[in-house]
Design a protein that fits this description.
Length: 212
């Protein structure tokens, strides 16, 4: 992907407006976000460490005595305030991000069995990282607004032109470190996610830029 453009690739499913999607945009956006949530659920079921943002939310809840859900909400609000100087705007994708990912996560955790062996748990984590990275690329190129955390990544990319993989890794490592300082629990799954998902996103976006 050419970083000189400082923009996400335009694809046949890219919408012309954050709030006025085409049918093709919705056909890509909705399953991408749901499967993103499935990937999050696979990480939870693997029980080898949560994603970095979940570690931060856990740390905040431990320090404040609040529910981890409130910690997650507070993080989302603060991150979205960081959108302002980065000139990011919410859209339909932002709303669907917060609903469909939660739906996919909840159904996966409830219905899919927890892997018993360490090998299966590690394979589940690797598959989840690839799934989340691929789905992130598809939903972001719908150009209908991103989730709070992805918006931070995209905003930095568009304002600096830095490689999106490096941006994502730096964000995840910083978040993971802060969560650990606050008492959040990290594991091998946390580290694999922090160092891996950014490169999957960058690879997928590079392919899209090349072929579209």
């Amino acid at each position: 992907m050419s970083t000189s453009k400082h923009q996400l690739p335009s694809t046949p499913w890219s919408a012309q407006s954050h709030w006025k999607p085409s049918w093709l945009s919705l056909c890509v956006l909705i399953p991408s976000l749901f499967l993103f949530g499935v990937g999050e659920g696979l990480l939870v079921n693997a029980s080898l460490g949560s994603a970095p943002w979940a570690v931060l939310a856990q740390g905040i809840s431990l320090k404040t005595g609040s529910n981890i859900g409130w910690g997650t909400l507070g993080i989302s609000i603060i991150v979205m305030l960081g959108w302002i100087p980065l000139k990011q705007k919410p859209g339909l994708g932002t709303i669907l991000n917060m609903t469909l990912i939660a739906l996919g996560l909840g159904l996966t955790v409830h219905y899919l069995p927890i892997p018993e062996s360490l090998t299966l748990r590690l394979l589940s984590i690797i598959f989840a990282i690839v799934l989340i990275g691929v789905c992130s690329s598809f939903y972001l190129t719908c150009k209908m607004g991103s989730g709070p955390r992805d918006g931070l990544m995209v905003g930095i990319f568009q304002n600096t032109g830095w490689k999106i993989g490096k941006i994502r890794i730096c964000i995840e490592i910083i978040v993971c470190f802060l969560g650990w300082l606050l008492g959040g629990i990290i594991g091998i799954g946390t580290l694999l996610f922090a160092f891996g998902v950014g490169w999957v996103i960058q690879f997928c976006l590079s392919l899209m830029a090349k072929y579209y």
